[in-house]
Amino acid sequence: MIRIAFLWTMTVGCFLFSSDTLSATSVCGNDHTSINNLHAQGQIVTGRSQAFGGSCNGSSLRLTFDFPRSSGTTRMCFPSTAANVPEGLVITGYSACPRASSIGNVAGYTLGYPRSSGSSICSNSPIPEGYIVTQTGAFKTCSSQGTTRSGMTVAVPSTTPGRSTTKCSPPFHDVPAGFVTTSYSSSSACRQSNGSLGSSSSITVPSPTRNTFVCSGSPVPPGFSYTSQVSSTACRSGSFGPGTGYIIGPVTGQTATICATNSSHLPAGYLVTSQAASSICGSFNQWQISRPVTSGITVCTVGGSPIVPAGYVITSRSRRSSCTGSGANSYHVKVPSGSSQFICQGSAIPAGWAVRSTGTSTACVATGSGNSATIVPLSGDGPFYVCANTTLPAGFVITHIISSWSCSSDTWVVQKPNPTRGVTTVHCGLHSQIPTGFVITAQRQLSQCRSAVGSSGLGFDITQPITTGETTVCPISVIPEGFVITGTVSAGNSSCGNSAAYKIAVLSGPGPFEVCNISGLPQGYVVTSVLSGDRCGAHGGHVVQQPASTGETRICRYGRQDFSVTDAPIASGYAVVGVIQTSSCPLSNGLFISLPNPDSATVMCNGFDVPDGYIRSGLSINPPRCGAIGGYTILPLNSSQAVVPTPFIDAESDVTTAPNAPVIECVVQGVNGGLISQATTNPSGCH
Predict the structure, then answer these.
(1) Are 180 and 204 in contact, with CB atoms under 8 Å apart?
(2) How many CA atoms lie within 13 A of 231 on its CB side?
(3) Do residues 179 and 201 touch, judged by C-beta distance below 8 A?
(4) How far apart are CA 235 and CA 247, in angstroms?
(5) In 492-512, which positions are buried (b, 16+ CB within 10 angstroms) versus exposed (e)?
(6) What whole-number distance in Å separates Cα of residue 548 and Cα of residue 554?
(7) Residue ranges of the alpha helices (H) in 471-575?
(8) Please, are residues 651 and 75 in contact by the beta-carbon 8 Å criterion?
(9) Rounded CA gap, 524 and 510, in Å?
(10) In this prediction, what percent of the chain has a pLDDT beyond 70?
C-alpha cells in the first residue's frame, strides 16, 4: 500500500469532506445494472470523476454513489434525476455538480429534508407524505443557467382539531387523510404560471366531540357522517352566490341520525333502521342508523340491496313504510344460534355452518313465497348430513352421497379426513375439494359415491403423506409444500386408473438426493449430476444437494436431462468462479460456485448475476478457470476498496478553508496470481 500526502486548500466552491458519509460506492458510467441497483437501494450520484487506465471498459466516467446525509443538504448529480430522489427528501435547488478533471460542470440538484413549519422546494420535487403546498412562485434557488424556475412552499398542516391551514388546490396535492375542507377561495400565494390568482382552500381536522362545517366535495373521515345541509359563501368556489356546505359530526353511539343517499355515507359497522325525506338534510334523506345486535334487528335495504354483516344471516324479509323503495324493502338479521337456524336466500353461510335442508317460505318475501334453507352448526369432525347444493365446508370431505327429500338435490355425508399420516379416508367430491396437505393415493368407482342425479361414483383415497419415507400419489394430486417427486410408478402398477403414479418424499439435510425433473428444483438445493437409470421414467431426473458453505461446489449449468438450454438456478448469494466440462451434466457443462469473499475481491465468470451485496469492479480479466467466457472481479458493497476518497464526495459553496494535508490512499491489490484489480478509483496523484 502506498500513502501519498499533499497540501490541499479550499476556497468558495471547493470540495468538502462529507461528514456523515460512512462509505461510498464507485461504479463505471456504463455499468447500467449497478446504477439501477444502487438507485433502487436509495443511493444517488454524489460525485463524478474521470476513469483512469481504461478501468471502465471504454467509459471515461466513474460515478460515486452514496446514501444522502442524515441531516443538512446533499448534492445529487446526473444521471440521478428527480425520479431518484429518496423518500422523505425534497429538491431545494438546482446547482452544478463538482468539477472532476476534464469532465466539467454537470447539472444537478441540492436535496434536503423539509421542515414541518415550511420549506421552499422546486416544482419538480416530490411532495413528502403528510405535506401540503401552501405557496407557489418563482424561486432563484431553482434557477438553471440564469433562468428562474417555478417552485412551491410545502408544510405540514396543523393537526389540532378546528385549527385551519390554507393550501393551494390540486393539482398540487390532495387533502391529507383525516382532514376536511372548510372553505374555497382565490389566493395570491397560489398564483399560476401566467400570473393569475390561484385556487386555495382551508383544511382542518374535525373535532372528535362536536360538529364541524365542511364544503361540498370535502372528504368525510371514517367515523364521521353528514348531519345537515347548509349554504355558505365560504363554499362558493369562484361563483358569486353561496355554495353548498354540510355539517358533519362523529358517530360513536349505538344509534344515530345522519343525512345520506347511498351506502358510501353509512359509517362502518352500522345498519339503517329508517329512511325519510327531511328539510334538514336538503338533497339527502335522513337515516336512523344502529349497530347490529346478535339477537337480531330489522333494518332497511340500501339501494334495493340488504347489507348483511359478517357472521349474520337474513331470517325474514318484509315491506315497511319506514323504509324507502318498492317490494321487500326491509329484512331481519341475526347471528345464527342453536342446533339449527332458518334463513332466507341471499345469506352467506357463516363459517362452521352448513345447509341441512332447502325449501320456500312466505317469511322470505313481501308477498308469495321465497327460497329458504335451514342451516346446522358443524361442531367437531362429523359425520354431518348437508345438502349437496351447498358449498363444502372448509376442511371437510364427502364420504357418502345419498338421496334425500329435504334437499333440492342429493345429500352429502361430510366429515374431516383422518389426520393420521398414511391412514386413508374416502372422498366422493371433486379432487379440487381435497383439503390442503392431503394427497390422492388411489381413484376408483365406489357405490357410496354414486348420486341419484347422475354422479359416476368416482371416489378417491386420500391421506397425509408420511415424512420418513416415500408415499405413492396420483398425478392429479397437489404435491404438498416441502415434498418433491423422487420416482414414478408405471400406469399398470399404480392405483390411479390409467395414469402413472409418483413417489414423493421430504428432503432433509445436505444430500445428495435423487429428484425427478417434473418436480422442479427444491429450494436451497443445486443440480450436481444427471440421474442415471429409469427411476423417473421418460421424465428423467437429477441429483441435488445443498451447496457447501465453505469452499466450492460443482453444479450443472443446464439442469435437464433432455438437453434443454434452460439454465439451472444458481444458489442465492453464490458466485460462479469456474467452468468445467463433465459428463455428469447435460451438454457436459458444469460450473463451480462458492460464496464470495466478504472482505476482499472475488474473481467471477462472465454471464452470471452478481450476488446481492456485491458490485462489479469494472475490470475485465481472463481467469483460466472461466475459459473463453472470461471474467471480472466483484467487491462487497461499501468495501474500502470500492470507496471514492471522501474529498471528492460533495461540494459546498459556504466553505472557505479545508483541513490541511489530507491523506489519499492509493490501493493496488493482487488477485489470482498477479492480476490487478483496478476497482478503486485513483484520485489525482495516484498512478
Answers:
(1) yes
(2) 8
(3) no
(4) 13
(5) eebebeeebbbbbbbbeeebe
(6) 10
(7) none
(8) yes
(9) 9
(10) 83
Contact 29, 56 (CB under 8 A): yes
- Among 54, 51, 1, smallest CA distance to 669 is for 1
In order of 127, 279, 495, the CA distances from 186 in angstroms are 22, 31, 80
593-617 burial, b for 16+ CB within 10 Å, e for fewer? Answer: bbbbeeeebbbbbbebebbeebbbb
pLDDT digits (tens, 9 = 90+) for 301-331: 998 899 999 999 999 999 999 999 888 999 9
Closest CA to 520 of 557, 553, 555, 483: 483
* Cβ-Cβ contacts under 8 Å for 231 (sequence gap 6 or more): 242, 243, 244, 245
Cell of 6: 499533499
Instruction: Give the integer Cα–Cα distance in Å for 455 and 193.
Output: 74
Are the C-beta atoms of residues 425 and 479 closer than 8 Å to each other? no
Least confident interval from 68-72, 224-228, 363-367, 628-632: 363-367
Distance CA 336, CA 295 (A): 9
Do 393 and 387 contact (CB within 8 A), yes or no? no
The C-alpha cell at 396 is: 371437510
248 vs 252: CA distance, rounded Å? 13
In degrees, rounded to 5, the angle at the alpha carbon of residue 676 between the alpha carbons of residues 675 and 677 is 120
Q: How far is CA 572 from CA 517, 575, 608, 612, in A?
A: 20, 9, 12, 8
Report CA Rg, the chain. Answer: 36
Which residues, other chains included, contact 201 with Cβ-Cβ below 8 Å and sequence gap of 6+?
166, 167, 169, 175, 181, 182, 183, 184, 185, 215
State pLDDT tens for residues 456-475: 788 999 999 999 999 999 99
Three cell numbers written together for 595: 460464496
Angle at Cα 133 formed by Cα 143 and Cα 234, nearest 5°?
135
* Distance spanning both ends of the chain, measured CA to CA: 12
100 φ/ψ angles, rounded to the nearest 5 degrees = -135, 105
Q: Is pTM beyond 0.90 here?
A: no
Alpha carbon distance 129, 108 (integer Å): 24
Is the Cα dihedral 50, 55, 57, 58 positive or negative?
A: positive
What 3-state class would DSSP assign to 401? strand
